[in-house]
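Action item from last meeting closed. Structure (84 res):
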């Protein structure tokens, strides 16, 4: 059951990050989920490197959102997503 919740939260995080980065017109729900989940892992990895432990729901959401935004930024620089 926890993987279903992870996919749902990943989709929400990816969707919000795509709206902030103005790539929401180019991304479907599968891309939103993928960016949300992979971006969350990226965010937690970077937070760990910086010595920041996200404790609590809001801090975890901010780290996941930041990772998703960073992932969209990186993918945009690689030419995967372009701003609409």
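Sequence:
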């Amino acid at each position: 059951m926890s993987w279903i919740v992870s996919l749902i939260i990943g989709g929400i995080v990816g969707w919000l990050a795509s709206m902030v980065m103005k790539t929401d017109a180019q991304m479907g729900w599968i891309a939103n989920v993928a960016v949300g989940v992979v971006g969350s892992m990226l965010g937690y990895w970077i937070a760990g490197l910086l010595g920041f432990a996200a404790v609590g729901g809001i801090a975890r959401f901010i780290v996941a959102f930041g990772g998703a935004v960073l992932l969209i930024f990186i993918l945009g620089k690689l030419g995967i997503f372009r701003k609409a």
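Note appended to the action item: Residues 42 and 67 are 5 Å apart (CA to CA).
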